[in-house]
Design a protein that fits this description.
Layout: H1 3-38, H2 42-55, H3 62-77, H4 81-98, H5 105-118, H6 124-137, H7 145-161, H8 168-188, H9 193-210, H10 213-224, H11 231-243, H12 250-262, H13 266-279, H14 282-295, H15 299-315, H16 319-332, H17 338-348, H18 358-362, H19 364-378, H20 383-396, H21 400-406, E1 413-415, E2 423-425
Antiparallel strand pairs: 1-2
Helix pairs in contact: 1-2, 1-3, 2-3, 3-4, 4-5, 5-6, 6-7, 7-8, 7-9, 8-9, 10-11, 11-12, 12-13, 13-14, 15-16, 15-17, 16-17, 17-19, 19-20
Length: 429
C-alpha cells in the first residue's frame, strides 16, 4: 500500500473512531439526562440538556420530549417568564425541525401558539399562524379544545382590528369550522363535554356581538341567488338567521320555502307553520301544521307539539279540539303521561258543563280520575303527580253513599251530554 492510501485509511479510521466516541458520549449524556428528568433532578439535568442540544441535536427525539418537561418546570420557577417561555418555544421548534416524523403538528404547533398568547410573545397574526398551520396541516391531531378556542378567538380579534382583510362572512365560516371540530371532539371525549360546551358558548357570544339581522341579511342576500339549490348552504344560512331571530324577514321566509320545496321535512313545515301563524294566515298555518305532524318522526317532539296545541285550544275554550290534540299526543308517544294528565284536567274542569243534576255533573270526576291514573300507569315520571290528581278528583266525585241513594249498584252508564260525549261507568259498590 502506498503512503497516500495509508494516510487515507488512517484518517478514515480516526474519523470513524471519533464519531463512534461522540455518539457514545451523546447516548451516555442522554441516558443520564433522561434519568435526572424522570427523578426531577432538574438542576443536574439543565447543563446536560444544553450540551445535548449543542452537540447531539439530532441524536434522539427524547432530548426534546424530556427537554420540554425540564423547560416547563423552569418556566414555572422563572422570574422572567417571557424569556423562559421563549426558550421553551425554541425547543419545540427544534423538535419540529429535527424530528418531524415524531412530532405531530396538530399537537405541537398549537402549543407554541398558546405559549405566545399566555406570555404575550409576537403579534396576533404571528400567534394565529401557529394554530392555522395546525388546523390546515394536521387537523386530525388538533384536538385540544382550549387551543381550538384560541384559534377562533385570535381570528375574531383580527376581524375586529379591521386591518387583516377578514369579512363577516369569513368570520362566520371560521366559526362554523371550529364549532364543528369542537362538536366532533365532544363526541370522541365525553369527559370534556362540559368544558367544550362552555368554550362553544363563548365562541357564540363573539359571533353574536357582530352578526345581527342588519349585518347578516345583506351578506346572505348576495349569495342567495347562486346558492338557491344548495340545500347545505340554505340550511346553514337559514339557521344563522333563525339564531339571530330574523325569522320575520322576507329572506328567511324565502329560504325556508326554498328548503321546503327542495327537501320537505318536519323542520321546514314547522317553521312555515310558525311564520304563517305570526302573519295571521290561519289557513296556510293549519296546512303546514298538519304536514309537520305527519312528517315528524320523533315521538317526543310530536307529542310535545300536540300537547302545546291542546293547551292553546283549551285557553280558547275549544275543549273538544283540545281533547283531540291530547289524544293524538298520547297516540304519538304512548309512554308520555303528560297528555293524559292534560286530558284529565280538561275533564275535571267540565263538571258543571256535563250532567243534569249534582250527581251526573260530578260523575265526570270519575273519568278525570281514571284518565289521571292512566297517566301514572304509562309514565313513571308523572306517577306521583298522577296519583295525587286522581285522589283529588275521587274526593269530588259522588261517594258510595251518593251512589247508593241514587239507587245504583255499579256498572250503570251515565251519558255525558256535553262536549265530552260518550258515557261514564258508575263504580261498583
Amino acid at each position: 500500500m502506498n503512503t497516500k492510501n495509508t494516510w487515507k485509511v488512517t484518517i478514515l479510521c480516526v474519523l470513524t473512531s471519533f464519531l463512534m466516541k461522540a455518539q457514545h458520549n451523546c447516548n451516555e449524556t442522554l441516558s443520564l439526562f433522561a434519568e435526572n428528568v424522570k427523578t426531577k433532578r432538574y438542576a443536574e439535568a439543565a447543563p446536560q440538556l444544553e450540551k445535548l442540544r449543542k452537540d447531539c441535536a439530532t441524536t434522539n427525539y427524547v432530548i426534546y420530549a424530556y427537554g420540554e418537561k425540564l423547560l416547563n418546570y423552569e418556566l414555572k420557577q422563572a422570574s422572567d417568564k417571557k424569556q423562559a417561555a421563549s426558550s421553551l418555544i425554541q425547543l419545540l421548534k427544534d423538535r419540529l425541525a429535527f424530528f418531524p416524523e415524531k412530532t405531530k403538528k396538530g399537537v405541537f404547533l398549537p402549543k407554541i401558539g398558546a405559549l405566545m398568547i399566555k406570555y404575550n410573545i409576537g403579534t396576533i397574526a404571528e400567534q394565529y399562524k401557529w394554530f392555522d398551520d395546525a388546523f390546515t396541516q394536521d387537523k386530525a391531531n388538533f384536538t385540544n379544545p382550549v387551543n381550538l378556542y384560541y384559534y377562533f378567538e385570535l381570528y375574531y380579534k383580527m376581524y375586529q382590528a379591521g386591518t387583516y382583510g377578514i369579512s363577516l362572512e369569513n368570520l362566520m365560516e371560521k366559526h362554523e369550522l371550529v364549532k364543528e371540530k369542537l362538536a366532533s371532539e365532544k363526541e370522541k371525549t365525553p369527559k370534556n363535554k362540559e368544558a367544550i360546551e362552555k368554550l362553544t358558548t363563548n365562541m357564540n357570544v363573539y359571533v353574536e356581538k357582530v352578526a345581527t339581522c342588519e349585518t347578516l341579511i345583506p351578506m346572505l342576500e348576495k349569495k342567495f341567488e347562486t346558492n338557491a339549490t344548495n340545500i347545505g348552504w340554505l340550511r346553514k344560512a337559514a339557521g344563522q338567521l333563525d339564531a339571530k331571530k330574523c325569522e320575520d324577514d322576507a329572506l328567511f321566509v324565502e329560504m325556508v320555502e326554498t328548503i321546503d320545496a327542495i327537501e320537505p321535512n318536519a323542520n321546514s313545515k314547522y317553521y312555515l307553520y310558525q311564520i304563517h301563524s305570526r302573519k295571521g294566515n290561519s289557513e296556510k298555518a293549519e296546512m303546514y301544521l298538519t304536514q309537520y305532524i305527519e312528517l315528524e318522526t320523533d315521538a317526543a317532539k310530536k307529542a310535545a307539539m300536540l300537547n302545546k296545541l291542546g293547551k292553546t285550544a283549551e285557553k280558547k275554550n275549544q275543549k273538544s279540539k283540545a281533547r283531540s290534540y291530547y289524544l293524538k299526543a298520547a297516540k304519538a308517544d304512548p309512554t308520555a303521561g303528560r297528555a293524559y294528565l292534560n286530558l284529565s284536567r280538561l275533564y275535571g274542569s267540565s263538571a258543571n258543563a256535563c250532567g243534569t243534576d249534582d250527581f251526573s255533573k260530578r260523575a265526570i270526576y270519575w273519568k278525570a280520575a281514571e284518565t289521571a291514573r292512566k297517566a301514572g300507569n304509562v309514565d313513571n315520571a308523572v306517577k306521583g303527580e298522577a296519583s295525587s290528581l286522581a285522589a283529588t278528583y275521587m274526593q269530588s266525585a259522588p261517594s258510595k253513599t251518593d251512589i247508593f241513594k241514587k239507587g245504583y249498584k255499579g256498572g250503570e252508564k251515565i251519558l255525558m251530554n256535553c262536549w265530552v260525549g260518550g258515557h261514564v261507568i258508575v263504580p261498583n259498590l
